[in-house]
């Protein structure tokens, strides 16, 4: 347990900062607001085959038979087998609890020295947070991450967990942020904040560890390069796996327990991020 917590705590020194547009602050920032918190919580889902080691009866046998049949027909590299149900490996109730606690941690520990943060009550009244692109009911999905030449592909099932008052808003499926013309400007206007913070969190249980797959924080301000849009002037990210709590074959389904062990390191990393945002604000870019 002690070694697990130690590895989680080391992440605070690993934040990477980027300025995608070489943007500059137009004025000193003394007021900010968290305009979005988007949380995904997932796990690796194994194939339901006779070799998977998981007992799923008819589903397992059918998946194996189909895969074997395609192999005999000469269809190579096609993964047609069914996958384990997400709820068997990651309980929806655990996802709700973890998501809510991540939201609490962000509100309590992402604090920028010398900057007044708009209260949550003001944010909750913003109509833009109830737009069509924002979900306020938990849902789930799957994704495949290609492993490359020497690594196997990874198949994830994950929950998209809305956190009040933000809901869940999926990021555009591109490799960089084009800013926000909808929520961030509206939240800033309603709260009188000069800059907005958007947080994207993706925690994954790999069967070896519950780890940060993505922790990305954007600081957005109005910029001339995107009239009517808030543009990310700073983007901070933690490397994949920099926060991780080991799990075993006996404990890998205990996701809430693993999150409780990770939480102190997660909050420590957020506190350190607040200081790094302060330094970036002082430099102005």
Describe the structure.
- This protein is α+β, with helices and mostly antiparallel strands and 285 residues long.
- The protein is 31% helix and 25% strand.
- It is built from seven helices and nine strands, in the order H-E-E-H-H-H-E-H-E-E-H-E-E-E-E-H.
- It has helices at 2-9, 57-72, 86-89, 92-109, 120-124, 183-191, 255-283, and strands spanning 16-18, 31-44, 116-117, 139-145, 154-161, 195-205, 209-222, 230-238, 244-246.
- Strands 1, 2, 3, 4, 5, 6, 7, 8 and 9 form a nine-stranded mixed beta sheet that branches.
- Helix 1 (2-9) runs parallel beside helix 7 (255-283) and helix 4 (92-109) runs parallel beside helix 7 (255-283).
- Mean pLDDT is 84; it is low at 1-9 and 50-78.
Short account of what is shown:
With 285 residues, the protein is α+β, with helices and mostly antiparallel strands. The chain is built from 7 helices and 9 strands. Strands 1, 2, 3, 4, 5, 6, 7, 8 and 9 form a 9-stranded mixed beta sheet that branches.
Shape call = globular
End-to-end separation = 40 Å
- What's the helix count? 7
Give the overall pLDDT as a whole number.
Answer: 84
> Element order, helices and strands?
HEEHHHEHEEHEEEEH
Unreliable segments (pLDDT under 50, ≥5 consecutive)?
1-9, 50-78
Structural class: alpha+beta
Number of DSSP-assigned strands:
9
Tell me the fraction of residues in β-strands, as a range: 15-25%
């Amino acid at each position: 347990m002690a070694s697990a917590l130690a590895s989680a705590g080391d992440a605070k020194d690993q934040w990477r900062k980027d300025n995608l547009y070489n943007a500059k602050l137009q004025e000193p920032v003394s007021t900010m607001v968290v305009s979005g918190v988007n949380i995904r919580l997932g796990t690796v889902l194994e194939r339901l085959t006779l070799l998977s080691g998981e007992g799923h009866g008819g589903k397992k046998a059918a998946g194996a038979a189909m895969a074997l049949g395609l192999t005999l027909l000469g269809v190579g590299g096609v993964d047609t087998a069914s996958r384990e149900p997400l709820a068997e490996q990651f309980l929806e109730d655990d996802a709700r609890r973890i998501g809510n606690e991540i939201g609490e941690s962000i509100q309590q520990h992402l604090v920028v020295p010398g900057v007044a943060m708009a209260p949550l009550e003001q944010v909750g009244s913003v109509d833009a947070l109830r737009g069509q692109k924002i979900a306020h009911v938990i849902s789930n999905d799957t994704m495949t991450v290609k492993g490359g030449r020497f690594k196997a592909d990874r198949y994830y099932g994950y929950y998209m967990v809305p956190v009040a008052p933000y809901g869940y808003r999926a990021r555009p499926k591109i490799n960089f942020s084009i800013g926000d013309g909808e929520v961030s400007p509206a939240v800033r206007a309603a709260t009188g904040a000069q800059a907005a913070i958007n947080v994207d969190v993706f925690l994954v249980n790999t069967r070896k560890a519950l780890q940060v797959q993505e922790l990305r924080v954007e600081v957005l301000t109005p910029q001339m390069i995107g009239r009517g849009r808030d543009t990310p002037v700073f983007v901070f990210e933690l490397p994949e796996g920099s926060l991780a709590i080991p799990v075993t074959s006996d404990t890998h389904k205990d996701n809430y327990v693993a999150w409780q062990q990770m939480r102190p390191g997660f909050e420590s990393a957020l506190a350190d991020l607040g200081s790094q945002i302060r330094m970036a604000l002082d430099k102005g870019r």
